[in-house]
Amino acid sequence: MSEDTDGLTVLSIDGASMHESGVMPPLIILKEIASRYEADNGSPSGSFSANKTFQMIGGVGDGGLLAFMLGRFDISVNDTIPGWSKEERSQRLEAALKTFVASKTNPSDENCPLVKPQEENSKCRVFVTVMHALNLQHPILLRTYRSRIDSDPPKCTVVEAIRATTAIPDLFTPVTLGPPHRQIDYFSPACHGFNNPIDQVRQEAKAAFPGRSMSCIISLGCGHPGPVQIRDAKEDAARAVVQLAMDSVRAAEQTYRRLAGIPNLYFRFDVPYGLERAVLKLNPTLSEIRAHITAYVGQEQTSDQINSAVKQLVERPASIEVSELDGLLPVEIAATVWVKKCPLPSPNFTGRRHELDHMHAYFTSDVGSSSHIYVIHGLGGSGKSQLLFQFVLECQTRSPRVFDAVYFVDASLETTLETDLKAIAIDRKVGENAEDAVQWLSYQTSRWLLILDNADDKAFSIQKYIPKSIHGSVIITSRNPELAGLTVKDARSRRLEDLEKWAAEGLLKKLVGSREAPSDNEDSLVAQVAEMLHWFALAVTQAGSYMSATSCGYQEYIELFQVERSRLLRERKGHVPDNYPWSVYTTWAISFDQLKPAPRHFMQICSYLHYTGIPKDLFLRAAESKPLNDIDEGPQIWLSVFLNHVRNSEGRWNPISFDEIIQNVMSFSLLDYDPEEKLFSYHPLVHEWTREAIQFTYGQDFPDIHCALQLVALSTPDLNDNSSASIFLRRHLLPHLDSLVPGAAHISSVPIAVRLSPVYHQASRWNDYASIFERAKESVESGGGWNLDNCAMHVATAYQALGRYAEALDLQVTALANVKRTFGDEHPYTLLSMDYLASTYKHLGRHTEALDLQLSVLAKRKQTLGDEHLDTLSSMNNLALTYQGLGRHAEAIGLQAAVLANQKRTLGDEHPDTLSSMGNLATTYTHFGRHAEALDLQVTALANLKRTFGDEHPRTLSSMSCLASTYGCLGRHTEALDLELSVLANRKRILGDEHPDTLGTMNNLATSYFHLGRHAEALDLQVSVLANWKRTLGEEHPHTLSSMGNLASTYRNLGRHADALDLQLSVLAKQKQTQGDEHPNTLASINNLALTYQGLGRHAEAVDLQAAVLAKQKQILGDEHPYSLTCMSNLAASYIEIGRLSDAIDLLIPGVSIATHALGAEHSITLNMQRQLERCLARDSGELVDDSFNEELDTMAATIEQHEQEERWEEAIEHGEIAVDAFSAILGEFHPKTFMQVVNLAKNCSQLGRMDDGIRHMERAYWLINNDRFPTAARSQIMPAFEVLYSQLGLSTYLAELQVKPDPTKTESLMGETSRPRTNDERPPQVRAADAAEARRALDVQLKDTKAVKMGTTSSGSRRATETEKPLNISADIAVADLATADRAGKTAARAPETSKERIRKGKARDHSYIPRAERTGSADGDTHSSNQFVS
User: Fold this and answer.
1) Would you tell me the crossing angle of helices 889-907 and 912-927 to the nearest 10 degrees?
2) Beta 266-269 vs 213-220: how paired, if at all?
3) CB 653 within 8 A of CB 647
4) Where are the alpha helices (DSSP H) in 701-846?
5) Rounded CA gap, 1226 and 1194, in Å?
6) What integer pLDDT is reported at residue 1349 of this predicted model?
7) Residue 1365 has what pLDDT?
């Protein structure tokens, strides 16, 4: 018989077998077996080798030590017995083990690894069992060989394995195994019910020797325990616990039952009653122990068993296949049991398809390769069990069935769980208790499903009742979400939420049934009932049952629910088809009653907050805050009781205590937590129930809403705290204040109002801001003093933000007088009040009065605080902004530069205040036209802010907004757009869709869209912004009126003059009423209205308005203010339109001088006025390229257009070449109209197939538009469409090549000698005018001759230019060349007739409503978004 066909022999050795004397009872028995084996086999005495006799040896504890000695190191039985004493084991175990292992390895290696490749094929396979703290239900095997069922075993040495299996807790320290990042402590399983490794030996033999037969299994015990007696003595009690832990009988008896039908297979040798008394005796003698063992071996029954075992070892017959070791012929157990079946789902089950599909997908994947454990958790009454029942029904009605067997267990209590599992064990004839059922399921190879329903009881661990199997599946339903941790992966658990809307409505209809005369709006009423119940499964079921039992209609139930909500949810009426035993409120009361006192208190306080988005920091900050003064003591005491639960002994926040409270509430699914946002939320019905439960329990004694109000007040961060966490917290406190404040009878404490105000301030909820201080103001009205004035100033702040400047002014003037009288002229309260008043003066346009106040404040702060105090620097910054408003930019820059230098020196370059000052200085540079300097500062500030605060901090976003504004001023609209899109996305997420900063960013984005030709998107955004302002601030707020002005300007620029006029007249009327006739915003609106009048041809009215505005601006702001100079330029343009050239010249000559002095020669206002003056002087001398000449050019363009429409490409190209020369000679080589003629010529050549000529002209156009002399604004407008055209013509690759070539226009003209630059000309206006006249005379004859010879007239004999002319509308500010539209259409679109004068007006008039973007006028931490500013 070969080795492979011989029957297997295996040895199992129990633990806790070594006595103080070093005697191991299993070895004495094994010595007797060895002696008889040698005699029967004819072998010499002492030749017995366990290594060669057994194919597998498994042990635990001391039995594991023996397994290594006998099986791994092949020590003889005789040599093993005297080698180990108790002293060596307990005192020098590790050292002795290392010495022993080193002596038995070759070469000597005390750190010999457990698995050695060269010894893997040894005839005897050895393993020991260990445990770790993460899993006390199932032992782990440490093997001397690799196993196919354990791909990643702990890696250790032989010494570590022996130490681990013998490390009994409280006697030996655990052994730490595993890599550094996931080390685990291992110890002996002997004291955890696994002292007999026979079950592991059986299963390991099945896995290690598939297809082999088993001859015999020998199990050596340490002594059969007698009856346990526990006396009062502590020593006896301790020994009794150890004796219980050493009980190996259960596993032995169960194995007897499994294998009882197979004779001579399983042999158990265990000394019966008496040995344990000797072992536990403090100092038993060796003779006492040997006497017990000898007596046992000498018994006839034992001796016969040893003989039978030896015979099996010698002959090794094949008694049974290893696959049948679980029990081929189980013992018949006479018992009557009832095994529960999985209930059917309710006949009204509706919805949950997504959840069911998720479960089906999970349980049909990786079948037979991994364990399947699935947890359904959620609030009581959410339908967890019903979902489970429906899933099982679907699985078992499929063909083939998903599961071979389904076992249902009620896991609500440990007793019911064990009872149901015991019934399974008895029914399957595998045992008599729950453990037998779990173990039997663990070894089944069929596909079974074990259901553990309602596992809500936290008093016991359910984990030990979960079988370990790759074939079976387990589904758990529970209110406790912590059980989802049993599944390891999120895909293996499902939190059950409310029903889907349609499912809840369908369930309700099923329960109510059909009515004889359903109402017309039944679906709407059903939806209303379901929504009232928040689509909660049990609530919908309960409502449907009530309506069915009482014949109550939907409308009647809705009305009843409004007044009897609590009763309807607390009491049940009618039959509930799923037999659920409790009502909605009773379900939650059961959970609530199991909470500890602190978690109950937590839920009671939160019930007065909003049910969603409760920040964790709300409690943290409140616990860390000092108590408020002058507030109601009752709520404060009640709140302190709770906060003391989450404070440590030093009065600081205790996160561990708080987490324990939260975990207790969450363990019943009464609370949800978002760990990313750190927000808690309740189900709305649970939230309502908690509040009602409080009133029922405490009545009027609970301080209810004021307790929660004080909690919010304590936690609100100060407005000066601009950290991301504080901004986040203030935003998320808003809905809670909305829940609290309306219900509070009054806010009688000024400290409460002050602490709550930053929430409303950040959200710009100014009406609410004013309301809380008005309430507080009433409570201190009679007492007067600082509290009253403080409230008044806060109310004034809100009025100012609401645009109610006159009311704010009255309050502030009164408050300032009172504060001066109380505290004196130099007190900080007085100076603060003066600051507030100055701010209101500025809003009213009374800049001089604001300036006087700010100069006074600055002087006093310098005197009392010094030049470098933060308050002093703040005053300097405020004063600089007022200078800026007065147009005194040089003084503003001087102050801001001084502030910045001071802060750099005292605070450092990267301090937030320093970076804010850099932003302020950059804003002033922008107003002064020094965009390059502004850009440098803003880029530096933004980089530092990103590094300090991150990309999404409000300061960073404000800086990005400022930089985008500067990009817009420089014509870099694409870059501005990219920044604004990023800012908008972040502000929407952080501040919300309706926050003023968000709306301001939308306005800026609309401006960039407009400049890039995306007019529809710009218009949509502005309409949305206006609607938001109207809804949040009202129709007369300055922000709303500014937004209306922006929209009107867009309408006008799109040619919708009538729409623009209606809006502007409305804006102007409201501004005159609310802000006065002389306010800067009012004057800006008058100017904008004048531009619209011009568009409508009402020039005289436009001039009258502009003259009046200019006079007022000079009177209020002075001649050098940018607004005054812009008005001067606008009026001059209007004079030119109506032919009043001398009036225009009289304005422009001093205007150019003033602008040069005040703003600089390179400022856009200065350059524009210089161009206007040149035009006036040239036209006045009759030498300018006048309207008649422009009409000639228009005729040429119109004729080319007609040829294109008629597809007469040869003539279009011929006339196009002439037109390019003419436009270049008259308007200049780099004029946008010249550029357009070159582009048209290139397109026409491509239409005729003359690609070389087309490419040559497109290259010329490319170099023209990219030349420095091409107008920047026109380039930014045209370039995107020009690049699209390159792509349409298939020249994208060629365009990329051009971008790396040298620019030929830097050295020579592309057009010939007749072309000349029209920009950056340093000659005086008179000289430029003379040169223009000379050029005109030289070209006049040439052009007219060309026109007569080559252009001719139209077929009708008259010029068609007035009918089909296409004005390019290239202005000095906005280039509106609709190139992309023309390209897509394949031809130039026809436009309505337009005079050349109108085209000139469009090119030069200034629009003061549609500003490039919302520019900053404050600190770097906030944006202003008014469009009613005079911007050149």
Assistant:
1) 160
2) parallel
3) yes
4) 704-715, 724-740, 750-763, 766-779, 785-801, 805-823, 828-843
5) 12
6) 37
7) 26
Alpha-carbon distance of 454 to 1069, in angstroms, equals: 70
**Cα angle vertex 991, ends 987, 993, to 5°?**
75
Yes or no: say if 401 and 413 are a contact pair by the CB < 8 Å rule: no
Torsional sign, CA 461, 462, 467, 472 = negative
* Phi, psi of 366, deg, nearest 5: 55, 40
Per-residue pLDDT tens over the stretch 1316-1365: 333 334 444 444 444 444 444 444 444 444 444 333 333 333 222 222 22
| Contact between residue 248 and residue 222 where contact means Cβ atoms under 8 Å apart | yes
DSSP 342: P
Mean residue pLDDT across the chain? 76
Long-range contacts, stretch 580-587, CB < 8 angstroms, 24+ apart: 580/381, 580/538, 580/541, 582/380, 582/381, 583/542, 584/381, 584/536, 584/538, 584/539, 584/542, 584/685, 584/689, 585/689, 587/380, 587/381, 587/538
Alpha-carbon gap, residue 166 to 1099, rounded angstroms: 105
Instruction: Tell me phi and psi for residue 102, to 5 degrees.
Output: -60, -35
- Asked if 293 and 276 count as a contact pair (C-beta separation under 8 A), the reply is no
Residue reference for tokens 């800006």: 1084
Burial annotation 334-348 (CB, 10 A radius, 16+ → b, else e): eeeeeebebbebbeb
- Beta-carbon contacts of 46 under 8 Å, excluding residues fewer than 6 positions away, are 38, 76, 78
Q: Give the pLDDT confidence score for residue 639 in this predicted structure.
A: 83
Q: How many CB atoms within 10 Å of residue 143?
A: 20
Specify the higher pLDDT residue, 372 or 1187.
372
Q: Which of 136-145, 241-250, 843-852, 868-877 has the lowest mean pLDDT?
A: 241-250
Counting every residue, how long is the chain?
Answer: 1432
- Two tokens, residue 397: 């009605």
1300: left (phi over 0), alpha (psi -120 to 50) or beta: alpha
User: How many beta carbons lie within 10 A of that of residue 136, not counting itself?
Assistant: 15
815-829 average pLDDT score: 89
Cα–Cα distance between 37 and 33 in angstroms, integer? 6
- Of the candidates 857, 777, 847, 849, the residue with the CA atom closest to the CA atom of residue 815: 777
* C-alpha dist (Å) from residue 529 to 533, 548, 574, 693, 898: 6, 14, 18, 23, 67
Q: How far apart are CA 802 and CA 1377, in angstroms?
A: 41
Question: Do 762 and 737 contact (CB within 8 A), yes or no?
Answer: no
Region 115-136 average pLDDT: 74
User: pLDDT class for 429, splitting at 50, 70, 90?
Assistant: confident
Tell me how far apart the alpha carbons of residues 1264 and 1223 are, in angstroms, rounded to a whole number: 14
pLDDT (mean) for 630-657: 82
Find the mean pLDDT for residues 1226-1230: 73
**Closest residue by Cα to residue 899 from 925, 880, 886:** 880
Tell me the DSSP string of 367-389.
TTTS-EEEEEE-STTS-HHHHHH
Calculate ∠ Cα 442-447-451, nearest 5°: 70
**Is 976 strand, coil or helix?**
helix
End-to-end CA distance of the chain: 108
Please give the model's pTM, rounded to 2 decimal places.
0.50
Residue with tokens 């015990």: 221
Torsion, CA 230, CA 233, CA 235, CA 238, rounded to 10: 40
DSSP designation for 577: T
Q: How far apart are CA 1117 and CA 1148, in angstroms?
A: 19
Would you state the pLDDT for residue 1157? 84
d(CA 510, CA 502): 12
**Residue 325 CA to chain centroid, in angstroms?**
54
Q: Are 385 and 411 contacting, i.e. CB atoms less than 8 angstroms apart?
A: no
Which residues, including other chains, have CB under 8 Å from residue 1242's CB and lie 6 or more apart?
1253, 1254, 1255, 1256, 1257, 1258, 1260, 1261, 1289
